[in-house]
Fold these 2 entries.
Entry 1:
Amino acid sequence: MRRGLRQVKLIQNYIDGKFVPGKRQFADVNPADGSVIAQVTEADRDMVDAAVQAARKAYRGEWGRWGIRERAAWLYKIADAIEARFDCFVAAEVADTGKPVALASRLDVPRAAANFRVFADLIKTTGLESFQTETPDGKNALNYAVRKPLGVVGIITPWNLPLLLLTWKVAPALACGNTVAVKPSEETPATATLLAEAMQHAGIPDGVYNVVHGFGPNSAGEFLTQHPDVNAVTFTGESQTGAAIMKTVAASVKPVSFELGGKNAAIVFADCDFEETVSGIGEAVFLNSGQVCLCAERVYVERVIFDRFVEVLKCKAESLHIGSPLDKTTELGPLISAQHREKVLSYYRLAREEGAVSVSGGGIPEFGNSLDNGFYVQPTIYTGLKESARCVKEEIFGPVCHIAPFDTEEEAVHMANDTKYGLAASIWTTNLKRGHRVAQQMNVGITWVNCWFLRDLRTPFGGAGLSGIGREGGLHSLNFYSELNNICIRL
Ligand code: NAD
Ligand code: 6OH
């Protein structure tokens, strides 16, 4: 090989059980140092069509005909195949996202395997409604529902937890007997493609799982949502993108499930377990460099402990180990891209313009090595903003929070709910009565008390307001990914 012409990996589309290149390519960049790690081949409209047709064929074939126990057995095989390639998945996720290797090993990849196992278990054990209906003549009728697949499901996912969020949708879709065409984020194409390899090795029939790469508008994402043969669209990403997708799918009236953005609040009462709370809020603000839709960007702290809380969270932020994602002790990696870093830094500047007091961070860390070419920002804490400030209202999606004091429970509840989003909230108190009371007043899809991002995959997951439409998780996923046919029999 000539010097300077390093061979770069090619990430291809996966259609009908085969890896196929597209005509155009784009670069897959490692956010930790800005290096190009792969070229990705973009699917054009014809390739998206081929993926949907392959999925349709597989749906009409054995996958659509198999019974629940057979499909569940395949899902367990997929989970095993992910675990058999655990290190490859971790390495690919870390290279694509820049997330710390410790995080990908503890969260992303284990959750991918768990997603398949949980929905395999659920589809085997979940019953359906039946009602004995009384009629005036006394003969009565029996109503019972049966679950049928929708057909071909289009799945569009973001870059922050690429494999976790993809499999969170692929697993229940397949469990219910659908086939899928997925469009992973252009920033993180690797693990969806590795999953194709895992499925191929596990022997999943061709066409059941298809991957098309590319962007959103006028690219693979839009082509997929426009496709008349896609029966439902499930999407995780920004609220604005959700609005665009909704417009596109409206033309053909497809079911949609949207998991969108958040501007989540944490409420810290003076009676909290202080150490546990600081540690929990530290996770809620800084995990994955704040790039989790559930992260807390607004922290409300009861005034009597406000100064102490700010000081201790500042120490926590400043002691986080920022560094190479490959270092096992790294706690904070880079942001996903130069463009996203510019967005986050623009909010750091805006916070100052809006009159924030800078408690910690606000800039770019320096390393003196190749990481200086990466897309890092400092973990950042502000206080002193008005509740109407844009930095308090808009999702930033970085390792940053604003901390504001409150005096009464009512005030805290009001401030937490004063947002167009409604994804998640966390309440920190040792008074359980208060925990229940406040939790039940949160206008969100998920409220944690004395914890954050503690997940049971059987529970409803989703958001209110700008944070989404519908719920996935457990039975809610099974219901979204299937059509219920109620049968009424005159007895
Ligand atoms: P994004 O909306 O920019 O992109 C998500 C996906 O949509 C990508 O695959 C993209 O190519 C595709 N896309 C973009 N425009 C499209 C269009 N017009 N038609 C079809 N597809 C299109 O989101 P992102 O920047 O990748 O992810 C970050 C956002 O996702 C944040 O707002 C975050 O809060 C949100 N998010 C929400 C959840 C949740 O569960 N609620 C989970 C993770 C991320
Ligand atoms: C958003 O960034 C995180 C979403 C998490 C889930 O969808 C989940 O199932 O844990």
Entry 2:
Amino acid sequence: MPSTKPFWQLPALLLAGLVAGALVGWLAGGRVMTGIALVAIVEILVLLIHILRSTQTTTTVDVSAPRKSRLLASHLRDLHATARQWPDAVVILDKDQRIRWFNRAAETLLGLHRPTDRAVRWPERMAGTELAACLDPGSSGLPYEVTAPGQPESQLSVDLLPFGDQQQLLLARDVSHISRLEQIRRDFVANVSHELRTPLTVIHGYLELLDPEDVPELAPVLTEMRSQSRRMGQIVEDLLTLSRLETQHEVTDERVPMAALLAIVHKEALALSQGRHQIALESTAGMDLLGSPRDLHSALSNLVSNAVRYTPKGGSITIRWQRTPEGALYSVSDTGFGIPAAHLARLTERFYRVSSSRSRESGGTGLGLSIVKHVLNLHQARLQIDSTPGIGSTFVCHFGRARLLPPEGA
Ligand code: ADP
């Protein structure tokens, strides 16, 4: 950095040093000249050292310039080699979605070839694979899982990141081992649930045969055993439903007559409530749904059953089916206990409960909202939950236009 000191500062300092030397010499017995000479020698030495140091610095800068660029080039080579050997597929795409660069893993996992695939447009190169549309602005849900185009037995988790000047960095990681573990977990749960079903049915059957009046001393025990075996049976049924929904990728597209389904759901709610709540049905959409009647019935009635179970006596519940600009919504509002905000994000996890005791007392399995979420996913619909503790909750299912059908004969 250039010095900002004024030009006269150094001569003034040297002069001041000489005057000080003369003064000290005079005080030390009138040896003015000796004082001046000694200070002059010291000043010359200091100046010499300073000059030597600055020449050394200049020499180092000159010498290090080529070394620095060699060092930079070697770092670049290392970085390039690392990116090439990286186990995840890395692809750089320019602003026209053309392939600019890719590493070795991209050759194996994505089936890209060097040099023929350089500068080829991604949508055209990936046409016919699940990755073709991943750059579309409308494609949601990234990162998502797809089958590897270059290795069909592998599953990839794909992510897109903005990079440089309007470029994009596509990262694809082989997650086959995680998918396999997930599959093992799903199979295990399904098998255990299936194996438990028969013995539980037998136990439940015998318990039903026993009349508490025949053994009055065991009456409370029998009642509790019956209620617990019913609960276990329901858990097993819900686990089997979840296993089936998890392995399913799509639903049968059947007409679901909504007027009839809403009437059934309303009737079930009235039966479950047994007069403890006011339950209203507002159906204005005038549309049917396209999907699985059995699964949609299960999801829609799950929400109503929750509203009844988590709303104290005297509360009100409203079931709505109405049009929206995007399609239609089915909602269930209640004036029940409500849910603290901290729990909302986790409600659809298996066995997640805000209050275990309240869920158990009300006969819950902790799997209802998981089932709702899976059913909605299979119908490309989403669940929205709004709730205020002490005020109530609203569970909304948003269905897209593609799932709507005008009622028969309309
Ligand atoms: P559960 O069988 O325990 O009801 P769910 O998966 O249906 O299981 O619901 C998960 C949890 O969400 C419940 O245990 C309850 O704490 C909470 N919950 C669900 N619906 C409501 C509601 N309408 N009002 C208050 N809490 C609710």
